[in-house]
Amino acid sequence: MKNYYIFYLLCFLLFSCNKAKQSELLEIPVDIDQNVSIPLSEIAEEITAIKLELTDKSMINPDFTNHVIVSKNNVIVGQMYNILVFSEDGKFIRSIGSRGQGPGEYNYINCLAFDEINNRLFIFSSRKIICYDLNGKFLSEFKLYQNSQSNIMLPMNANYINGELFYSIEHVGKIDEGKCFKSSVIFRLNDDYNVIDSFSVRKTYLDKMYGSILYASDHILIFDSTIYMYFPELTRFSKGDIPQKLTLQDTLFRLDKNQLIPELKLKFKNDGIDGSGIRFIYLFNIYRSSRYVFASYENQNDDRHYSFCYDTKTGKGHNMQDGYTDDFNKIEKRVKIRPLKSDTEMFYYLHTNMKPDDREEPNPTLYVGRLKK
Predict the structure, then answer these.
(1) Residue 327 and residue 247: Cα distance in Å, rounded?
(2) 76, 80, 208, 293: least surrounded by Cβ within 10 Å?
(3) How far is CA 332 from the centre of its chain?
(4) Is residue 307 part of a domain?
């Protein structure tokens, strides 16, 4: 009988240990009082500069550039109202599509996704997906899913991964008694635009709709054949007007067998809540490579933008006001890096290099870097 008790005790301990191990979540502290700027040579192996050609049809405004896709043969630059295609060495090739209401036309470009194998570009604009090839040929168009209660439906992020199209939508609308809701949904489509699966991330109910909607980017990414997703709070609030029930979205998820599994979380002081109970941290993004974890956020207490980098190899974090120092190219202004959609071991940023004898501002130079492992 005693042996049976020992056996059951061992089984219980083994189950408890396995359960504890499965529930472990990497928690990374963020020191919001720290302000350093690490040189890119500390995290990057190399950086390649691509000068994007300036013509009458290829002018780029970095302030309106929301999406850059770097493929094997092309660079695709998505601005608010146009899409430009350059060669791998920066020569301008063509624009894609045009503004308007008709088939193949777009009003505002919410997000882009690219299928490199079949040379297809997916343009998300308002309530539809438009598909072109990089020769500028219109291929197809598809209406986005619409929630019957939604007053506003915004495509926020998209990526084409392993033969499937992923995109996220933010639904905003009113329900009974004048209350409002916001919900985030991820859709997974096959090549015929049929929905394979969908993931309802969260639904928030509010007494009224506050603030304005923020456009998202870089939230559906892949590295090492694993899909990672981050879901930020996409509403900007004015000071003193933040609903206290809204908590900081601080967790990065991975997609595993059609389930969203928490991968890691960032730990801010007091969970980003100040002494009066108001949230003052806006997290725009969390993503990871094989070695590093990156984030960008805004601190409303000083109205400044911060970049964060954590080295999983050394266990050291860096909190940087306004970005990184490019010691490869000796750029004086700090730069803000973004991941490539197809591989988070790579990153990019844009910077305009003005010379004293330049009569007009040139197109920005695209810098593409590879991270250390």
Answers:
(1) 37
(2) 208
(3) 26
(4) yes
